[in-house]
Amino acid sequence: MRFNLLVALALLSTSLVGGIPPLMPYPQKVNLREGKFVLGEDFGIKIAGPYSPRVFLAKRRFLSRLAKRTGIFFSLEPQKTALILKYQKTIKLKPKMDESYRLEITPDGMTLEAKTDIGILRGIETLLQLLSSDSRSYFFPAVSIEDSPRFPWRGLLIDTVRHFMPVEVLKRNIDAMAAVKMNVLHLHLSDDQGFRLESKKFPLLHLLASDGNYYTQQQMRELIKYADLRGIRIVPEFDIPGHTTSWLVAYPELATLPGPYALERTYGTKDPVMDPTKKNVYKFLKKFFKEVTKLFPDQYIHIGGDEVNGVDWSQSERIKKFMEKHHMEDFSQLQAYFNQKVFKILKKLHKKPMGWDEILHETIPRDVIIQSWRGKEAVIKAVKQGFNVVVSAGYYIDLCHSAAYHYLNDPIPEGTELTEEEKSRILGGEATMWSELVDRDTVDSRIWPRTAAIAERLWSPSEVRNVRDMYLRLRVVSRQLEELGLTHIKNQGMLLRRIARYQDIKPLEIFLQAVEPIEGYERHDFKDYTVFSPLSRMVDASVPDPIPAVLFNFAVEDYLNGDENAGKFVVDRLNLWWKNHQALEKIAGNSPVLKEVLPLSSILSRLSYLSLQVIEKGNQDENVLKEAEKLIQETDQPCGELKLAIIESFKKILFARRGTE
Ligand code: ACM
Q: Are both 531 and 627 inside the same structural domain?
């Protein structure tokens, strides 16, 4: 289905797309019926199931979110049961659990039914997304929904090392994950730049290697509980044997080379690495993982294993001799040897290991989960060898690609011959929020709303993949996430007020509607980023794939297909961008940090002006097009690490007629 953009936007303001409120992830089966259930003060909820703190507390949160959205003062002692939450059992969180639910809404009442209390949590989020309104009342449309996830593992990795993420950041992101039915928070807790968990057995880890930024065990216990109440597992990652500078700062005796070591302040793959030939390394890890096991209830512990570059290993005589003695030909065998020993330790502790692609080796046990980050080939290789896989390739949200890019990336690689059994070993996926270039102020804006599109890819049927429809729903869901305390929208204003030296920020906002951070790892080519670099410039305030730009791009398509209303919308936007540059320049008069984006603002303005010429006057003057071509060429070079998010639309408007000649 192709939606007329403006009609869809108008409908969205009364919250219906195609008759159904914007649900995300979209359920397996939705049947819209006649009528609606009107919400009033006398709104009673009955729980019909064994005692579950999850459901009990979810009911309270549900009412509070409804009250805030509607302004309704719900009665403390409602006389009517309007919603029944019916489930058979409470369960322990695990990778394969029943999260299915059925929702029946009629004009007389609503029933949410599930096998498990987790299913109830998932259904409640759907119900909240269904809330609709007209001029008289708030209501839920009469509907019948049957729903369950396509993949059992729907995760988000947050790197707490490169920039520390305080507990409240994690909590609000857990709430957002629950809202889009995600169920694994993967915490990257140690790396070259820091060690982020209190260890009572080895206190130098958090005392010497965290700059004071770590989670106490008490905080971690509370966080795990908080996540569990929302149906979310926490999988901790302790990346070994590489990415371990922080460990070696505290305990240099674990290292391959003598050291001493200092915390890394820069980024990239580093050389320090544990020495797999030392018995004391395993003794240490045994004690360490025993402590960790007591803290984290989840079955899985992630041991990282990525990017061991072999530089320090190749400089060690001890390692050379060890490898000769054991007939090892390369470092991958040495790492496999290390992993075997670590797996044994974890097995004794009744934990299952998980690790990045690089741990894949024919000798490792098949209950190890491989997290694939280097591409589809790694996924295929792993499932063919009998491993369960969690896919992160294509879900690297730190790289600032579009929501559509991630959305269309199916965990099951297309065009490959996998048996049904092999496919079933693809457990799902994880979005990865590496934090080199985000801090607590900006991290939400890199996770949301794009991760909601990934959540849909992992939950909904594979056929649900209409990009325009996704964006129209994402636009609404993004605003709902803000209600949960996420800062992805409001922090832009905060950053811009500081950048503008407290002048009016409107011109900066208008500019950021048309631009986005450059993609991939390119930002590192422009500045030597360290853990202390400011993340408070325009590029940090900007967001990947800004929705106003997405809508503009759709409107340009519609306009070029003959939609006059879309044309008016396009002209309005172009006028705004054309006139904006002067205002932005004025603010820059008091704000040196803004100077770096002036060339791009000027190009945006000029391209908008030239586009208006072409639209309004049908101006096909060769001089106009020549100037446009030159400006477009200039945009090949990023400016302040930013690029235009609407460049393709400019090309379409300016050269549409030329293309058809
Ligand atoms: C990784 O991105 N090094 C797993």
A: yes
